[in-house]
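Sat 14:20. Reprocessing the chain from the morning session after the first attempt stalled halfway. Input below, unchanged.
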Amino acid sequence: MSADARDAPLADLDERALVEACLANRPGAFDLVVDRHRRSVYQLCYRFVGNHEDASDRSQDVFLRAYRGLKNFRGQSSLATWLYRIGVNVCLNHVSVRSPAVEAIDAREFVDAGAESPSDRILRAERGARVRAAIAQLPPKQRAALVLRTYHEMSHQEIADVLGSSVGAVKANFFHALASLKRLLAGKDA
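Finished this time. Tokens:
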């Protein structure tokens, strides 16, 4: 690690220098990695497991594995992409062992509740629960492609990098996920 990076405030470090600071055991460096990526890792995990408790546990698993494996981070992708890859693997391992119990994220945090009637809120919540349940039924690779593309707005190339697959495979999985969702939800929103 360069002397400038050693003396610079952690918040001023770019990604590469922050990784170097972590590897040099600089106090607070990995805490900053967690702070910068905590929300996106949690959201990724939540989309896979469907409830707060499991998403929090999986997020902790992701950061624990990242901490232990940081020496293996080669920097060929961004740190966020590497963490997403760990997150997808952790979540796929978890959901293959156990089918997820789905609970709604507290909608009050994200939606202006005054803008819709109580009956509209109930209908939206019911539709959301049906969509989450349908997503939970998708095969793991389809679920991963759908979650990363739809909820995290990643490009097909970024998803391929996260999943370690080709862009063509990601596109096929996304297409099949949409077709499966349409089939699973057919006639339920009438």
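The chain has nine helices and no strands.
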